[in-house]
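Minutes, project check-in
Item: structure for the 370-residue chain
Input as provided by the requester:
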Amino acid sequence: MPGGEPCPFPRLTAGPYQNQLVPVKVSKVSDPAPPVLATVWRGSVVEARIRGHVAVVDALGKVLRSAGSADAETTLRSCVKPLQALPFLRLAADRLGAGGAEIAVACASHQGEDEHLAAVRRLLARAQVPEEALGCGPQLPSDEATARRLLASGGVPRPIHNNCSGKHAAMLATCAVMGWRLDGYMEPAHPCQQAVSAALQEILGVDLDVAPRGIDGCGLTTYGTPLSAIARGFAAASSDPAFMRAQDAMAAHPFLVAGTNRFDTALLEVAGQRLTAKIGGAGVWAAVARPDGPGVAIKLESGGGEAIPVVALVVLQQLGLLGADLPDRLRPFASVTVRNWAGRDVGEIRAERIEMSSSTQASAVGTGPA
């Protein structure tokens, strides 16, 4: 903008799909078409079919049930934030006196609402880390009312508004406690990221040194792994005291994990004592039944997350993790309304009947912690 002022609006770019180091495939052209998990209706017309994969895996890596390919490859994205938070929980949380709210926001993909920003700032203050150290990049709050208020006040998006700022604050806090330099904390060779990748490799049972990789929306490295590895990772982590602490924090502070009108927040409000759930970019979502699994992972091949709630609810119901009669808090997520620019309801996204086969086969990931 003239005068060198930062533009208050996000640039229209490929966003988190930029700067990939190695291409990450979802499925080969020759692979059978994955099953239709949801359908987009415009009036009485089927406008689009959303295909994808489901993996239900135990802590030993055994695929219990699946739809499509349990081993379809996907980037990890933000669904593994509770796993990325393990070094913070193991090394720094107690020494800083971090409470449940700070732990929850460390696992969050938040909307930049006031309560989210306050929790991130408290975490940074505990570690005496300046807000300017956040390297996740500015992002307009994804909560529309908050974004409008920010812009109307003359404000601009800052890294603290980024949905990943809690995760980055936790990483910086870990650096402060461990005496690691703050500068370069996002680089793969930095001790912080070495600790994060080691925790992921341990829990997922995947050799990340040879896994395909790319750059996530917040600037950190993300990896391409089988979908089953994500499900297995959540199940395997359930016996880890640090992960259990994250689960308790997410259940106690569900708003901090996502925000207003978000599916993960509603699900954790209703069932956070029975399961833990986390969405990620590019149509990936993970959950785990408490206390010991199984883990569940969903991948939509379209890469969009709009249909995740309707698909996830059906999967959780089929697994007996939710009842057939949904509580009022979750009913709005059982179908997604499609509206035109005038605000008129013109269609909906509905889940299809998902046929999940039973299996006793081990997945492509390891059968125990690395």
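Outcome recorded: The CA atoms of residues 19 and 38 lie 30 Å apart.
No further action items on this chain.
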